[in-house]
Amino acid sequence: MKYSFISAIDKSENGGIIKIPFNVWEICKKEGDVPVKVKLGESVFVCNLIPEGNGVYSIPVSAETLKSFKIGEEYPITFRVTQSSAQESPYSTSNPIRKIDGIDVVIQPHDGLCGQSCVAMLAGITLEDAINVMHCGEWQATMDKIINALNYFGIDHSEEIIYTNGREGVTLPKCCVILEKMGRYSHYLVYFDGVGYDSNLGRIEHYDITKMKGYMEVYV
Predict the structure, then answer these.
(1) Cα–Cα distance for residue pair 33/25, rounded to 1 Å
(2) What is the phi/psi pair of residue 147, to 5°?
């Protein structure tokens, strides 16, 4: 569920803060730590809501993100509650870890790290760094964990996974994360500009879309 409203940014000690104009306990059915993905204007970032007491929460805006906005001005705001606790990130979609204009393949040292390898390829980091951010080991990466990692690195992506289930004639976007069914688990790989990047097989010049279960677009 997404929640949308218009509000101004107030100055805070560490950047800015946006007051949520409804009771989060009542509307979102969440208490305690509330990790969210926020869209502020055209900027997207992840954070944990700040509890003010009795269901009143605020959205923190980092000093880096605040550079693109003005204190006191009103902006359209949308947020959705995510499933796992958000890490404080120095990145946002307006300040991503990198612009994706190419992919260097990352080969996993053994099976079970394909999701982490996809994050490493998209973010342009080492596999070890991706594992540390995702906090998951072999066979533990899920699409939800991949999405949370992409959010952390400020890599913008679709909110929708398109399930094709081996259908032919599918036109893939320029960049996406592909899901393949592999026994009990899903296998993940990156597709960029007509080429597949598989942590097992390396570069795949002509990817067979009939093997694909679905995909999520990554905006480049």
Answers:
(1) 11
(2) -60, -45
